[in-house]
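Thread: Newbie trying to understand structure tokens

Hi all, I'm a second-year student working on a class project, and my supervisor (Dr. K.) asked me to get a predicted structure for one chain before our next meeting. I've only ever worked with sequences, so writing a 3D structure as a token string is new to me. If someone could post the tokens and maybe explain what I'm looking at, I'd be very grateful. Here's the chain:
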Amino acid sequence: MLSSTISPQLTKVLKESKQLTENERLLLARSLLDSLLSDNALEEKEWMNFGLRSFQQEWDNEEDAIYDDWRKHYGVSEG
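---
Reply by user tm_fold:
Sure, no problem. This is what the structure looks like when written as tokens:
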């Protein structure tokens, strides 16, 4: 471990964690990892929603409105 990069607060928590059972430490580790994964998932979802909104704005415009009814425009039947 790089002790020079660990805050005093984290050092205290790490020392106290040694008093936990192995199972408790595993649950703690899982909880910490899950919190990171859920934060990343939320960030990814926000970026995907942002991209979708941008795509919808670009796609839904007057110039391309003629293609909204593309079957009629190109004479294609629905069968």
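A couple of things are worth pointing out once you decode it. The chain has a mean pLDDT of 82. Residues 19 and 25 are 9 Å apart (CA to CA). Feel free to ask follow-ups in this thread.
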